[in-house]
CRISPR-associated endoribonuclease Cas2 (Thermococcus eurythermalis), 88 residues
Amino acid sequence: MRYYILVYDVNEKRVVKVHRLLRRYLQWRQRSVFEGYLADEELGELLRRLDSIIDESEDSVVFYSLPSDKVVHSFHIGAPPDRFENVL
């Protein structure tokens, strides 16, 4: 398993589908940011499912792969979002 940080920028017509799909695999952090562990099989399945939703000519999904969550040092300022307006 590897730890991933994923950010996406997709057309608003597809944002709900992408967000719901990602919530099945990763933990939602903020707006279009997800993170969590994925096994190789899960990553492959997620990539296939994303490929069937996004339009590569206008959408973007970026995966940052890290050996574990222990190598990521992060901090937060301000209040986290209490809802995702485009999805709920």
Remarks:
- The two ends are 30 Å apart (CA to CA).
- Confidence is low (pLDDT under 50) at residues 84-88.
- Residues 8 and 42 are 18 Å apart (CA to CA).
- The first strand starts at residue 2 and ends at 9.
